[in-house]
Amino acid sequence: MTFQTGHIGLNVSDLDASRDFYRKVFGFEVLGESTDADRRYAFLGLDGRLMVTLWQQSEGRFATGTPGLHHLAFQVPDIEAVRRAEDVIREIGATLHHDGVVAHREGASSGGVFFEDPDGIRLEIYAPTGAGTSPAPGGAAPTCGFF
């Protein structure tokens, strides 16, 4: 058997805010949506391919101290795409960790930006190369695991 990630489903507290956030930061289009008060959701994707589903069925903030999801990482082709995403993240005022682009570890070529969505879900946009001159937070500690 072989596996490939199909899509990611996220519980959100405010569908409108989350839908707008993911559209602005990732450029996702709305592929389907329900505005039924008891069953609100949005299917988001790129070029007709489903990437993220948002389900308005939670309250509060993402709990980082309990077992479960640590963060979601999205790969882009190059560090310039990461920097463009960083500009959008700053523009909309989302929580940005490490003050911008960082390498995954000291001397690594891969790196990206680490930030949060409106519910505090931790996200990453990274490129496999091009971040070698960026600092690595915490020295040799893997960036993905410590934010």
Could you walk me through the main structural features you see in this protein, from its secondary elements to its overall organization?
- This is VOC family protein.
- InterPro entries: Fosfomycin_Res_Enzymes (IPR051332), Glyas_Bleomycin-R_OHBP_Dase (IPR029068), Glyas_Fos-R_dOase_dom (IPR004360), Glyoxalase_1_CS (IPR018146), VOC_core (IPR037523).
- Keywords: Metal-binding.
- It comes from Streptosporangium fragile.
- The chain is α/β, with parallel strands linked by helices.
- The chain has 2 domains: 49 residues, 2,3-Dihydroxybiphenyl 1,2-Dioxygenase, domain 1 (Roll); 68 residues, 2,3-Dihydroxybiphenyl 1,2-Dioxygenase, domain 1 (Roll), CATH 3.10.180.10.
- The protein is built from 2 helices and 8 strands.
- Strands 1-4-3-2 form a 4-stranded mixed β-sheet, with helices on one face. Strands 5-8-7-6 form a 4-stranded mixed β-sheet, with helices on one face.
- α1 packs antiparallel against α2.
- The protein is globular and about 50 Å long.
- The relative contact order is 0.18.
- The model has no long low-confidence stretch (mean pLDDT 94).
